Amino acid sequence: QVQLVESGGGSVQAGGSLRLSCTASTYTASLDCMGWFRQAPEKEREGVASIRRDGTPLYADSVKGRFTISKDNAKKTLYLQMNSLNPEDSAMYYCAAKVPPPTYCAGAYNLWGQGTQVTVSS
Predict the structure, then answer these.
(1) How far is CA 86 from each of CA 1, 37, 121, rounded to the nearest angstrom?
(2) Which of 16, 38, 44, 102 is least buried, going by the fewest C-beta atoms within 10 A?
(3) Tens of pLDDT along the chain (122 residues)?
(4) Measuring CA to CA, which residue among 86, 76, 81, 69 is closest to residue 122?
């Protein structure tokens, strides 16, 4: 069964950077519709960024200009480059995918990673 494995989380000072990665454990899986979410304690889960099969990225307003989402289709790996981090970015970050990928990436995500913690100190 396909699984998503995340890495790259950690603790950084405000203004620092982190790069998150999410790789499918089964390289034969097709993961064309993917995104990143985050959830802070006692807060609702929010979408951070998503990427369409044609490579078009979408970002939450709170991270636009600071975060960059990208993917390597051959490696079935999703990335999130996070720059200029601030304490408000502290959360558990999850990668997610829609499998099989629907046309135009419509619908809900149905495959999730285990999460990786990001902590930003002031």
Answers:
(1) 36, 17, 7
(2) 44
(3) 678 999 999 999 999 999 999 998 765 556 778 899 999 999 999 999 998 877 889 999 999 999 999 988 888 889 999 999 999 999 999 999 988 878 888 889 999 999 999 999 99
(4) 86
